[in-house]
Each structure stands twice: as structure tokens, then as C-alpha cells.
């Protein structure tokens, strides 16, 4: 099936809001094996929205619209959709009751008249309850086609899609789709593709598709079959081949597992405790680690040693090291990692020092120069990087590569 996305909202066109819904929905449609050829962002304008919707319905099997379902006058999605599809708007008693209950249990006790607009739905539409807001989702079936309306706020759209829309779309598929993700770290996208180009060129069913992330490459293996069991069986040989080709570069084949979760699991498995010592990342690494439930079992302390004084006082970095080599140097990174272990009594310390920019770079030490070190079992490993991009990107790449280095060091010592 061919799916098309329409994101509604003038605020999206003006850049006031980042369109995260489109990225989320695109990924979910890929999981379902749907072909996505077009995405459109259209403002809160009746004429342009109607024209966009007519085009989408004409060329696609499923059209998903997000945004414009609220109570205000500029929320036009439902009204325009009903008009384009020739459906009368009718009050849905169930939705009205849910709106009443929502306001009764919220701080806003008074229901203004415009809120009842959200209880109007196109005739014969399927109403999807909104567990996190007042505007219900709507599915309108037109023969073999479907038009799906979702609320704009991500905290409403995502749960609704996961709970109701994903199963609905899966059931509409003529074949069952099964996907498995193979997640790779420590290897660039071009190298990953080079290693699987023969598989991509010869693929039919199953297929493998690479997705580049910051510091990672994800390979989605997807198969179609009459049953989920049949589709699952088709993916196994290809996943096995990928494991053979990438070996330890694969950190998980579970789509839900993140790199930091995989690293924490390795630390727990080997009964290791961890300290982080950060300069240019300013605590981003420790923040990412503490997103993982149960991290307190292994994470001892996170030190943000941004200044030279802090590096000397908390990590025992030598004054002569800072004077002769500077804070952004291999020597400083080594001493930071060793000092992190000695000062906290942990088994492992990962340290980061670099120039995130946009100022502060020199010809010898340009913006993006980062040293990452890992001290473990009385041995320190240092990697030098020259990252490109803005300050945020440089810091994000530093964090990911810190996790990669930590993982590599654990595997080298505890395989």
C-alpha cells in the first residue's frame, strides 16, 4: 500500500514548531512495509488544504493527516476533509461525553462552546479515542482507501498511533509484514553499505535498508508473508548473515534497545562500576546514561570538569600537562580518565575533552577536535576525533563515540 502524510499547521511552515510527527510517522510506516512517496506541510488555509488532500487521496491508498483537530477557528482539518470526501459532520455522543469528563478532571472546569466542535465527526467515520486530550482521532474509509486524522500534539498522536492506528494499518495489509532491526555502532554509514551492497542489489523478500543515525547505523530487515511466522522465518537467514559480517559492531537486534542501554547491560554483566569525566559535553554523557532504568547499580559519579581548575582539583590533572599540552590533548584526556577512577573508586572512567565551538579553535586545534579516553584495568585508551558541524552536533557525536569506546573497552577485556 502507498501511504502519504499531510502535516497541517501554519506554525510548521513558519518554523515555530519542528515537525517531529512526520519523522515518527515515516518510521512507523516503514515498519509496516508501506510505501511512502510524498510528505506535505500545509498551513491553516481551507483552499490549500483541500487541494492538497484531493491530490493525496487520488494517488495514495492511505492518507494520514496530523494537526488541525482542535477547538479553534483555524483548526480546519476535519471540516475540510469532510467537505472533500462529501461527508456530513455529525455529533458523536461518545466523544462529547469524553470531552466533558476530560474537563471535569482537569483544572479547567468551564467548557467553552468551541470545544464541542471536537465532538463532530464525518458520517460513518471510525472514531478513535484520545486518552491524552480532547480531540479524537478519525478514520474515514473510502472503498479501498483510508483517510486518517490524528491530533497534532506528539503526546497525543504517538500513543494513539501506537495503540489504534498501527494495528489498524497492519490489518489492512494484504500480507503480514515483519521487521527486525540490526543496530551497529563504531562503523560509518558508507562502510556499512559497502559491506552489504551485494545483499541490497540482490534483495527481493526479505529486504535490508540502512538508516544513518548520529554515530550509528541501523539496518532494518523486512519480510512479507501470509503469516507473521512465515515472515519471521524469512528474516532469520539475512539477520544471521549480517551478524556474521559485522560481528561485535552489532550492539543489539532489539529495536527498543538503545546504545546506552546496551552499554549499561555490559557493565552489569561484568560487575563493573563507572564514572564519567566530561569537559566539552558538560554532563551530556551522564545525562544519557541516567535515562536507563537501573543505571544506579553501575554508575558511581558524573564529573563535569569544564575548567582547568576543576580538572586539576577533581581529576588530579597535572598543572604541567595543562601548560605544555593544553586541556584539549591526548595527555589531558588520559589523566582525566585515570583521575576519575582514582578519585571515585570506580572500575572504569570515560573522559571527554574537546573544542565544541563555535569559537576557541586554532590552526593546530580546530573546532571539533575531541579526545575521548577510557581507563580500565590500569590501561588507558584514547581516541582522537575531528568532528564537523555546529556546537550541538559536535557534542552529540562526542557522547555517542564515548559510549562506543566504553563498549569496545569492555568487550576487549571481558569477551
TrEMBL record:
Signal peptide: none annotated. SMART domains: MoCF_biosynth. It comes from the Bacteria. Residues 4-172 form the MoaB/Mog domain. Gene3D superfamilies: 3.30.70.2860, CinA-like, MoaB/Mog-like domain. InterPro entries: CinA (IPR050101), CinA-like_C (IPR036653), CinA_C (IPR008136), CinA_KH (IPR041424), Competence-induced_CinA (IPR008135), MoaB/Mog-like_dom_sf (IPR036425), MoaB/Mog_dom (IPR001453). CDD domains: cinA. Belongs to the CinA family. NCBIfam families: cinA_nterm, molyb_syn, PncC_domain, PRK00549.1. This is Putative competence-damage inducible protein. It comes from Diplocloster agilis.
Amino acid at each position: 500500500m502507498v501511504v502519504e502524510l499531510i502535516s497541517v499547521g501554519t506554525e510548521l511552515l513558519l518554523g515555530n514548531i519542528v515537525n517531529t510527527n512526520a519523522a515518527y510517522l515515516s518510521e512507523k510506516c516503514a515498519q509496516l512495509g508501506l510505501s511512502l512517496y510524498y510528505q506535505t506541510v500545509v498551513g491553516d488555509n481551507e483552499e490549500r488544504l483541500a487541494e492538497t488532500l484531493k491530490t493525496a487521496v487520488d494517488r495514495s491508498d492511505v492518507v494520514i493527516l496530523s494537526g488541525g483537530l482542535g477547538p479553534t477557528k483555524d483548526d480546519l482539518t476535519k471540516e475540510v476533509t469532510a467537505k472533500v470526501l462529501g461527508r456530513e459532520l455529525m455529533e458523536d455522543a461518545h466523544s462529547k461525553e469524553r470531552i466533558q469528563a476530560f474537563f471535569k478532571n482537569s483544572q479547567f472546569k468551564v467548557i467553552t462552546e468551541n470545544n464541542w466542535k471536537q465532538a463532530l465527526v464525518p458520517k460513518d467515520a471510525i472514531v478513535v479515542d484520545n486518552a491524552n486530550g480532547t480531540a479524537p482521532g478519525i478514520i474515514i474509509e473510502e472503498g479501498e482507501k483510508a483517510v486518517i486524522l490524528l491530533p497534532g500534539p506528539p503526546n497525543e498522536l504517538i500513543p494513539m498511533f501506537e495503540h489504534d492506528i498501527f494495528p489498524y494499518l497492519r490489518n489492512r495489509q494484504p500480507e503480514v509484514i515483519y521487521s527486525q532491526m540490526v543496530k551497529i555502532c563504531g562503523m560509518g554509514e558508507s562502510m556499512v553499505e559497502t559491506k552489504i551492497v551485494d545483499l541490497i542489489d540482490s534483495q527481493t523478500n526479505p529486504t535490508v535498508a540502512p538508516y544513518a543515525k548520529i554515530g550509528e547505523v541501523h539496518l532494518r530487515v523486512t519480510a512479507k508473508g501470509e503469516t507473521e511466522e512465515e515472515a519471521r522465518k524469512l528474516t532469520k537467514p539475512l539477520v544471521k548473515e549480517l551478524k556474521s559480517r559485522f560481528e561485535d559492531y552489532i550492539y543489539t537486534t532489539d529495536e527498543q534497545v538503545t546504545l546506552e542501554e546496551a552499554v549499561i547491560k555490559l557493565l552489569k554483566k561484568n560487575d563493573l562500576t563507572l564514572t564519567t569525566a566530561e569537559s566539552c559535553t558538560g554532563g551530556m554523557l551522564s545525562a544519557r546514561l541516567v535515562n536507563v532504568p537501573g543505571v544506579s547499580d553501575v554508575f558511581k559519579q558524573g564529573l563535569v570538569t569544564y575548567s582547568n581548575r576543576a580538572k586539576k582539583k577533581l581529576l588530579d590533572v597535572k598543572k604541567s600537562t595543562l601548560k605544555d599540552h593544553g586541556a584539549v590533548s591526548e595527555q589531558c584526556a588520559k589523566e582525566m580518565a585515570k583521575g576519575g577512577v582514582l578519585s571515585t573508586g570506580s572500575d572504569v572512567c570515560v573522559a571527554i575533552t574537546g573544542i565544541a565551538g563555535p569559537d576557541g579553535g586554532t590552526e593546530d586545534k580546530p573546532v571539533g577536535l575531541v579526545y575521548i579516553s577510557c581507563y580500565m584495568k590500569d590501561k588507558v585508551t584514547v581516541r582522537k576525533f575531528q568532528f564537523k558541524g555546529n556546537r550541538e552536533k559536535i557534542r552529540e557525536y562526542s557522547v555517542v563515540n564515548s559510549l562506543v569506546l566504553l563498549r569496545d573497552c569492555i568487550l576487549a577485556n571481558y569477551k
